[in-house]
Amino acid sequence: MKTPIFPQALLGTGIVPFGDLKISVASPTSQYGHGVFEGVRAYPASRGGMIVPALRQHMARMFRSARALFSDFAIPITQEEACESVRRLVETNDINEPVYIRPSLLIPVACTIHLEPVEGPKELIFSAYAQRSSRFRREGLSCIVSPLRKPHARVAQHKACGMYVYLGMASAMAEEAGYDESILLDQDGLVAEGTYQNIVFEKDGVLWEPRREGRPIMPSITRDVVRCLIAEDMPGGREIVPTDVTPQTMVRADSLMLLGTASEICFARKVCLDGVDYQIGSGEDTPTPFVAAVRDSYVRFVSGELGHEDLLVRV
Known about the structure:
Layout: E1 8-11, E2 14-17, H1 28-32, E3 35-37, E4 40-44, E5 50-53, H2 55-69, H3 79-92, E6 99-106, E7 123-130, H4 136-139, E8 141-149, H5 153-156, H6 164-176, E9 181-185, E10 191-194, E11 198-203, E12 206-210, H7 221-232, E13 240-243, H8 247-250, E14 255-260, E15 264-273, E16 276-279, H9 289-302, E17 312-314
Parallel strand pairs: 8-9, 8-15, 12-13
Antiparallel strand pairs: 1-2, 1-7, 3-6, 4-5, 4-6, 5-17, 6-7, 9-10, 11-12, 11-14, 14-15, 15-16
């Protein structure tokens, strides 16, 4: 299904028609996936205007990704200018509905056949896509533990363009097997994350997540927001405990959330491990009361009803 794209984009800080953006088929980005990107959402605010949740945090992660993966990957604008470009993108397209925004830092021209992305100009492109909430927020996900494993943490903790080839393979393999989503393990056989979501699960009243330090798990901004909401805005002030999670432990969870900017707050109703389907919680297409409460808090957060103004950018 083709995702509708808003007509105006930004190239750095300048407005250009989306159709005028060009990238060479011989560029290092096209040939080798040299580049980084971010996924940002914007939502209508409850009292008018638009809200971009955690925009500064998203831009900081993109700049970290570029510098960590490619030491010579010079960024043509500052982090503050990148945030302002996102604001201008929303304003220029007169956006008043939920959208997904894709900042992409690319090498657009043919400049080298070498693997090292040290030559050529870099461009930071901002584009917006109409994207309403996934049906899986309502119905729940059927998941399968993928035979593919996450690579080294140096790569997997950053949003590099080329890295998403194997994640797309994992997603396609899940669909071919009759499931909605893959869950990937690391090289040690421990649970890492979904194809593009962090994992938080509940067992016997305790909230757990795979330990992230030194492991191939994306530092999820949505997960950080949810951690804040659970601790500060939901009854009980609960904490999420990091630990090494085996797939055998995960499939016996009482509830299992998959958290990401694009997917928002999804939940798994079953997980297939070694050919066996394990029911998560009731196994029904309705979230547990706790997951429903987390999603309600998240919806109120992105609409600006819970405060946390330090995490919001209003347009």
